[in-house]
TrEMBL record:
Occurrences of domain I/LWEQ (ranges): 1160-1399
A GO CC annotation given for this chain: cytoplasm
One family name in Pfam for this protein: Talin_IBS2B
InterPro entries to which the protein is assigned, alphabetical: Alpha-catenin/vinculin-like_sf, I/LWEQ_dom_sf, ILWEQ_dom, Talin1/2-RS, Talin_IBS2B, TLN1-like_RS, Vinculin-bd_dom
Location relative to the cell: Cytoplasm
Coiled-coil zones: 1367-1394
Organism: Pygocentrus nattereri (Red-bellied piranha)
One example of a Gene Ontology biological process annotation: cell-cell adhesion
Location, primary (coarse class): cytoplasm
CDD domains (UniProt xref): talin-RS
Stated name of the protein: I/LWEQ domain-containing protein
Length: 1408
């Protein structure tokens, strides 16, 4: 609202609209919250008061927005501005009333008023007469002081609890304060002198002020428990109360020796104990090593004071005893403060923790100043105020208003929002002017304390209070608030030893002081001395363990060790790769392109380069950041090594391989040296002896980064590709790439020289823009200088090209031209290096977008597992265990999103931080959501998918937001890319809100289906927005794929109607998941198919139109299902059928459009006739391949003999070749005959009798396959025969098989063919050709076998016994051959019988 007022007053329409929208959103949230509070309030009167106050806020806000509109319409109109201010004041008052109606707040306000009323007793001139003796008054004061101190602790404790606890504690505190004040006034009456009395009253006023501050801090914390530093401010306020009480007790009481000092010390220790309860916030500004020094110094002081306490107890030196107790108390408080700060630094330095961010302003500082100014102004206008009190109040006002003006000045210099900047400046002027007017009236009042001057003073305080209140309201804007640190579980575990030792130290010190208090009165009690010695030992041991714990847990040391081990491993890996490269055995990576792997290396090296300065700074003086930075550095090295080895493997040049690997190793070694130096420095600013080593290591790292970047840029330039380094400079880098191509080519020099000139002129224009927009200015100057140097290099290059044209054969000129080209290439790489220095944020956006893309792919895989019912938890846990973690991480992601959007308008450094933080947070969010989904168990996979889909939507929206931020970085506020950024941010917030709703509803069986359906409708609307965009898809798809995707919509529509009729939440969830996938797939394939290059413009427009109609119709259907779930009436259920028919009609139109995309040649890939033709063509291709193989065969070489059978093997090959050619022609003819059947209508393109035509197609396919297989066997037999590895019988058998399968193919084609057709005649002719070729081959083989038999001469043995044996052996061989022949015939018959069973019916009948 404060922004709305400022923007309207300044006439800024754009920011006024933004502020009005944000105000409306905040009011909606406020209304819901007010209803929730009222519903939970037991007292009806309080609930009614809450709703009434919220109603007044709404009415006033509506009037405020109306007046803001009027102020915009008539800018400069004083009357409208005055009305606007009055309405704003009324709304502010209503808001305060609304907050005060919250449970607990009203009670705190009552307590504050009670303290204020009670404190008026201190303003009287004469104190009331004493009613008690001095001893009674002293006892009463001590008792009420102890009660008040205890009540203060209860307020601190209850502010972290429930509102009822805070109400009780604040009421008790105000009651105890009233009693303590009465006791203090009674004690003041016993003072001997007027000065002592004034001092006592002053101390009581200090206690009153401290008590008010304590209640205000408790009130702030209860309203916003997550506010930065609120808990520490509350603890500090409680300590202030304790210290004020101690000062009064010290002044007023006269106790037994040493008792007062011990009581004060015990109260101080009780007050500082709260520092150890909240280690998530900084306690002080001490660094870690300052904490160590503080612990050492205070432990030394404590040791001396403890020895003094013991010594002075023995000697009875009471004053010295009291002094030692005071010193010990201060040392223990210092030790506790140092331990609390050290534990915070240890926790926040853990790599898994997130450090807090300082806000633009500190709202608590503004609130405290506002309270102090209001109380001072009350004192000014109080008629009972003395001149000294008036001057004191004036001093307080001046001090706090000056602090507010300084804070406004700093805030205006830091903010990038022009409206906020102007508002801070204007508010500071108002505060300063009203303060000056008040000071004038105070001076007049100091000169004359008249009623008239007091009235003027009272009138002057009103505008000051209003100005300060308005400023405090504006400063409380969450946009300006700090972000507290988030300490991980690992960080909390690391804090534990420090906190445990500090608590043990406080406990034992408290017991030691209590023992010493009794011992100083009775120093002759031996058992008490032994107890004191025991407590003293416990204190010493706990301090020793505290020092050890702080030293052992030094931030960054453990992370440095882990990072050193990680980089050492990387160095070993790179050494292994270098050895492989030396041995020429480095395996090439085929899974990634050269451009992609080069981009990976470049990105990793740039990120490492960006970390050099932060690590150096952290090592010298920021211990809390050291662990984060070194872990981040080590995380880049593993991908760098993998990418560098892959890049080296892509290069054929051995020298280039070794350069890349050596420079990568050098970078790793320099980083290792940096880590050793950083570990030694440890973030200690006083360890100056390590700073030189850190600076030297940083310089070595920078040189290594520069070297490898030059090598990479040279490699990119030689390949003619220069990466896109940041978004607004794409044209510039393209010019560099084109110019590099030109200078590396030595042909057509005249044309290339002209091209270089054109390219450089474009490059210079883009370079001027790049230099003007670069951050910081030094980078812009560097870009400008290097572009100029590149221009000089291009001049020399063109001059040498001209000289070479004059004398083409001059080798010296050629060499000079090559040198100039190399110099230009180097200068190009230097320009690119300068560009990269200014695009840190954009590079981080690219890296983050890549990470988010990987997360989305991982979530898709998880959805597959969940859908399959295999996503189970690793241990026994419920979803409730993860719910809070999911909500907390989602809230952190929203904060990162705000920073990301703001980063587009800020520096590259902030943009880089925001992008890295958002990528880290979305990774954590997906992890906790996956754990939550797994914890639900695989029995409910649909709900698991709903939950994972919700976080996938968030990740997808974040990826688009990062892309929009990258495009909008550095652009003006009215640039179109800024509007795209706002749109992407809105989608991101919508999806995160949807995730939160899903998480809250996922365990509610009555509503989770409804929630899933709402999320699906929102998802489909977002997908429809992408579908309607003008962006051309990156790839195209086929109409067949498009038609296949439309089938899913039909199934999903039926499911949606069924879910609407049944009303079951399980059915609704299944419908939501199915609808999401079906519509998304359809929209993607529709756009990809429509933008195919062969699709006509009118068909494309129709496809996009029908896709839009189908999606909108489906959204209407889902929204109606939602309505049916809420109002399940028969009329509503009947409407489901109407809407489903509308969707079905749209799907039919989509399918018809898809058929039109292919024109008249479109076929159904599942049509049996199409399958038949495809198989025939495949068989023909197979036969042609076998024929080509035969063409390459030659007979084996053998000695020439005077023999007529010399050309037998040539005959075999020629015959086999002719068979292969004939069968190829046969199958092609069969394909043509089949097409003729379709044309004649004997076989339908979409068969009427699918079974009949399908059987015929199967017969044709099997016959064609048999021809192809037989021909292949024939070729193998011919090959084996000419090589001498097979018999002529195998060749004969193969040829006969070809003839038989050809006959089957002819039969299959004749079943439905026209015998007189041209195609059938060609088919018959081709079949006869195959038969003739087969017969020729059989005859040739049989003749060869017969000739071979004739050549076999038998030598008959002449001896009788030998002759008988020869006859027996021949008969034995004959019988064996006859038996083998019979077995072979049976085997053949069996094979034919088995094959016959699988033949189609038509072939069996015709064949028989």
């Amino acid at each position: 609202m404060a922004q709305l007022l400022t923007c309207a007053a300044q006439g800024n329409e754009h920011y006024t609209g933004v502020a009005a929208r944000e105000t409306a959103q905040a009011l909606r949230t406020l209304a819901q919250a007010a209803r929730g509070v009222a519903a939970c309030t037991v007292e009806r009167q309080s609930a009614a008061a809450m709703l009434d106050s919220a109603s007044h806020v709404m009415e006033g806000s509506a009037m405020l927005i109306h007046e803001a509109h009027q102020a915009l319409v008539s800018p400069g109109d004083a009357e409208s501005q005055q009305r606007l201010a009055q309405v704003a004041k009324a709304v502010s008052h209503s808001l305060n009333n609304c907050v005060n109606c919250l449970p607990g707040q009203k009670d705190v306000d009552m307590a504050l008023r009670s303290i204020g009323e009670a404190s008026k007793k201190l303003l009287v001139e004469n104190l009331p007469p004493c009613s008690k003796s001095f001893q009674e008054a002293q006892t009463e004061l001590n008792h009420t002081a102890a009660e008040l101190n205890h009540s203060a602790g209860e307020v601190v404790h209850s502010s972290r609890g429930t509102s009822s606890q805070l109400a009780v504690a604040s009421g008790k505190f105000s009651q105890d304060f009233d009693e303590f004040l009465d006791a203090g006034i009674e004690m003041a009456g016993h003072t001997q002198s007027k000065d002592d009395q004034i001092q006592v009253i002053g101390n009581l006023k200090n206690i009153s002020m401290a008590s008010s501050k304590l209640l205000l801090a408790a009130k702030s914390l209860s309203v916003d428990p997550g506010a930065a530093n609120a808990k520490n401010l509350l603890a500090a306020a409680a300590r202030a109360v304790t210290e004020s009480i101690n000062q009064l007790i010290t002044l007023c009481t006269q106790q037994a020796p040493g008792q007062k000092e011990c009581d004060n010390a015990l109260r101080e220790l009780e007050a500082v104990r709260g520092m150890l309860d909240n280690p998530n916030e900084p306690v002080s500004d001490l660094s870690y090593f300052d904490c160590i020094e503080s612990v050492m110094e205070n432990s030394k002081v404590l040791g001396e004071s403890m020895a003094g306490i013991s010594q002075h107890c023995k000697t009875g030196d009471v004053p010295a005893f009291g002094e030692c107790v005071g010193v010990a108390s201060k040392a223990l408080c210092g030790l506790t403060e140092a331990a609390g700060q050290a534990s915070y630094l240890v926790g926040v330095s853990d790599p898994n923790s997130q450090s807090g961010h300082q806000g633009l302003v500190d709202p608590i500082q503004f609130a405290k100043a506002n309270q102090a100014i209001q109380m001072a102004c009350q004192s000014l206008v109080d008629p009972a105020s003395s001149p000294s009190q008036v001057l004191s109040a004036a001093t307080i006002v001046a001090k706090h208003t000056s602090a507010l003006c300084n804070a406004c000045r700093l805030a205006s210099s830091k903010t990038a929002n022009p409206v906020a900047r102007r508002h801070f400046v204007q508010s500071a002027k108002e505060v300063a002017n009203t303060t000056a007017n008040l000071v004038k009236t105070i001076k007049a009042l100091d000169g004359d304390f008249s009623d008239e001057n007091r009235e003027r003073c009272r009138v002057a305080t009103t505008p000051l209070i209003e100005a300060v209140e308005n400023l405090s309201t504006f400063a409380s804007n969450p946009e300006f608030a700090s972000i507290p640190a988030q300490i991980s579980n690992e960080g909390s575990a690391a804090q534990e030893p420090i906190l445990r030792s500090a608590q043990s130290m406080l406990d034992s010190s408290t017991q030691l002081l209590e023992t010493a208090r009794s011992l100083v009165i009775n120093p002759k009690d031996p058992p008490t001395w032994s107890i004191l010695a025991g407590h003293s030992r416990t204190v010493s041991d706990s301090i020793k363990s505290l020092i050890t714990a702080i030293r052992d847990k030094a931030p960054g040391q453990r992370e440095c060790d882990h990072s050193i081990d990680s980089i050492n491993k990387c160095i070993r890996d790179i050494e292994q790769a270098s050895l492989a490269a030396v041995g020429q055995s480095l395996p090439c990576r085929d899974d990634i392109s050269l451009e992609a792997v080069q981009e990976q290396v470049t990105s990793a090296v740039q990120e490492i380069g960006h970390l050099i300065e932060p690590i150096s700074t952290a090592a010298r003086g920021e211990a809390a950041q050291l662990g984060h930075k070194v872990t981040q550095l080590a995380s880049y090295f593993e991908p760098l090594i993998v990418a560098a080895v892959g890049l080296a493997s892509k290069h054929m040049d051995h020298q280039q391989q070794m350069n890349i690997l050596d420079q990568t190793k050098t970078l790793a070694e320099s980083s290792l040296q940096m880590l050793y130096a950083a570990k030694e420095g440890g973030g200690n600013p006083k360890a100056s002896h390590t700073h030189d080593a850190i600076a030297e290591a940083a310089q070595l790292m920078k040189e290594a980064v520069d070297d490898i970047m030059v090598t990479l840029n040279e490699a990119a330039s030689e390949g003619g590709m220069v990466g896109e380094f940041f978004s607004y400079n794409d044209t510039y880098t393209d010019s560099v790439s084109q110019m590099t191509k030109s200078v590396t080519c030595q042909e057509e020099l005249g044309g290339l020289a002209s091209q270089v000139t054109v390219d450089y002129s474009q490059l210079a224009q883009q370079g001027r823009l790049a230099a003007a927009t670069a951050e910081p200015e030094e980078v812009g100057l560097q870009i400008k200088t290097r572009v100029q140097e590149l221009g000089h290099g291009c001049i020399y290059l063109v001059q040498k090209a001209g000289a070479l044209q004059m004398s083409p054969t001059d080798s010296f000129t050629k060499r000079e031209l090559i040198e100039c080209a190399r110099a230009v290439t180097e200068k190009v790489s230097m320009v690119l290096s300068a560009l990269q220095a200014g695009n840190k944020g954009t590079q981080a956006c690219i890296t983050a977008a890549s990470s988010v893309s990987g997360i989305i792919a991982d979530l898709d895989t998880t959805i597959m597992f969940a859908s399959a019912g295999t996503l189970n938890a690793e241990n026994e846990e419920s979803f409730a265990d993860h719910r809070e973690n999911i909500l907390k991480t989602a809230k952190a992601l929203v904060e990162d999103t705000k920073l990301l959007v703001a980063g587009a308008a800020s520096s590259q450094e902030k943009l880089a931080q925001a992008a890295q933080s958002s990528a880290k947070t979305i990774t954590q969010l997906t992890d906790v959501v996956k754990l939550g989904a797994a914890s639900m168990g695989s029995e409910d996979p649909e709900t698991q998918v709903v939950l994972i889909n919700a976080v996938r939507d968030v990740a997808k929206a974040l990826a688009e937001l990062i892309g929009a931020t990258k495009c909008a970085a550095g652009k003006a506020a009215d640039d179109p890319s800024m509007y795209q950024l706002k749109s992407a941010a809105k989608v991101m917030v919508t999806n995160v809100t949807s995730l939160l709703k899903t998480v809250k509803a996922v365990e509610d069986e009555a509503t989770r289906g409804t929630r899933a359906l709402e999320a699906t409708i929102e998802f489909i609307k977002q997908e429809l927005t992408v579908f309607q965009s003008k962006d051309t898809p990156e790839k195209c798809t086929t109409p067949e794929e498009f038609i296949r995707m439309t089938k899913g919509i039909t199934v999903a529509t039926a499911k949606a109607v069924a879910a609407g009729n049944s009303g079951q939440q399980e059915d609704v969830i299944a419908t939501a998941n199915l609808s999401r996938k079906a519509i998304s797939d359809m929209l993607v394939t529709c756009k990809q198919a429509a933008y195919h290059q062969e699709v006509a413009e009118d068909v494309r427009n129709k496809a996009l139109l029908y896709g839009l109609e189908c999606t909108t119709g489906y959204i209407d259907l889902l929204e109606h299902v939602l309505l049916v779930l809420q109002k399940p009436t028969a009329e509503h259920r009947q409407q489901l059928a109407v809407l489903s028919k509308k969707v079905a009609s749209s799907v039919t139109e989509l399918i018809q459009t898809a058929e039109a995309m292919k024109g008249s040649e479109w076929v159904d890939p599942e049509d049996p006739t199409v399958i038949a033709e495809t198989e025939l063509l495949g068989a023909a291709a197979s036969i042609e391949a076998a024929a080509k193989k035969l063409e390459q065969l030659k007979p084996r070489a053998k000695p020439k003999q005077a023999d007529e059978s010399l050309d037998f093997e040539e005959q075999i090959l020629e015959a086999a070749k002719s068979i292969a050619a004939a069968t190829s022609a046969l199958v092609k003819s069969a394909s043509a005959a089949q097409r003729e059947l379709v044309a004649q209508g004997k076989v339908g393109s979409i068969p009427a009798n699918a079974v009949d035509d399908g059987q015929w197609s199967q017969g044709l396919i099997s016959a064609a396959r048999m021809v192809a297989a037989a021909t292949s066997n024939l070729c193998e037999a011919a090959n084996a025969s000419v090589q001498g590895h097979a018999s002529e019988e195998k060749l004969i058998s193969s040829a006969k098989q070809v003839a038989a399968s050809t006959a089957q193919l002819l039969v299959a084609c004749k079943v439905k063919a026209d015998q007189d057709s041209e195609a059938m005649r060609r088919l018959q002719s081709a079949g006869n050709a195959v038969k003739r070729a087969s017969d020729n081959l059989v005859k040739a083989a049989q003749k060869a076998a017969f000739d071979k038999a004739e050549d076999d001469s038998v030598v008959v043995k002449t001896k009788f016994v030998g002759g008988i044996a020869q006859i027996i052996a021949a008969q034995e061989e004959m019988l064996r051959k006859e038996r083998e022949l019979e077995e072979a015939r049976k085997k053949l018959a069996h094979i034919r019988q088995q094959q016959y069973k699988f033949l189609p019916s038509e072939l069996r009948e015709d064949h028989s």
